[in-house]
């Protein structure tokens, strides 16, 4: 990815909260795509070919309402007394976590969301519904089977972007269902969608 594209992405995104770049091993061209969650926008750069056959990048973004950024720390430690942060509980009349089809997620995306602690799942899903579904789901992680040093999961819709950013570690002798998570959940109101 050229310095010009990288510079434009960081200019549009603002201060970077988290980012990742990945390559599609099945693509004809070996060019990366990039996702940047910033304080001003969620930006996605995807490799494309223009009408003349030249390699270009399509830049899509979800621009945020200034001052709308909210964060909630989620520390999940199953099996440790006193080690779990208070959960977001459903109040009488409150909504239960939504199904992936109601949110507009594929089965694969729903499965990835299901790996997260219940509190993070609730925070990520809260602003979306069948009337205001997810338009884009992005996730990426780096690490090993028992430890993810970087984890990011993003849901983007017409009115909100939510994200969980952090780490995961599976204690020795435990399964992934007993993983410890240190996450920050983000919610940002969307002012304008460009592309996508």
Give me a quick take on this structure.
The protein is α+β, with helices and mostly antiparallel strands and 196 residues long. It has helices at 3-13, 100-103, 107-114, 118-125, and strands at residues 16-23, 32-38, 41-49, 55-64, 70-76, 134-144, 147-157, 160-169, 180-194.
Task: Give the secondary structure arrangement, pairings included.
Layout: H1 3-13, E1 16-23, E2 32-38, E3 41-49, E4 55-64, E5 70-76, H2 100-103, H3 107-114, H4 118-125, E6 134-144, E7 147-157, E8 160-169, E9 180-194
Antiparallel strand pairs: 1-2, 2-3, 3-4, 4-9, 5-9, 6-7, 7-8, 8-9
Number of strands: 9
Mean pLDDT: 85
The count of helical stretches stands at 4
Helix content: 10-25%
Structural class: alpha+beta
The percentage of residues in β strands lies in: 35-45%
Describe the structure.
It is a single chain. This protein is 16% helix and 45% strand. It is α+β, with helices and mostly antiparallel strands. Strand 1 (16-23) and strand 2 (32-38) form a beta hairpin. The protein starts with a helix and ends with a strand. The model is unreliable at 81-97 (pLDDT under 50).
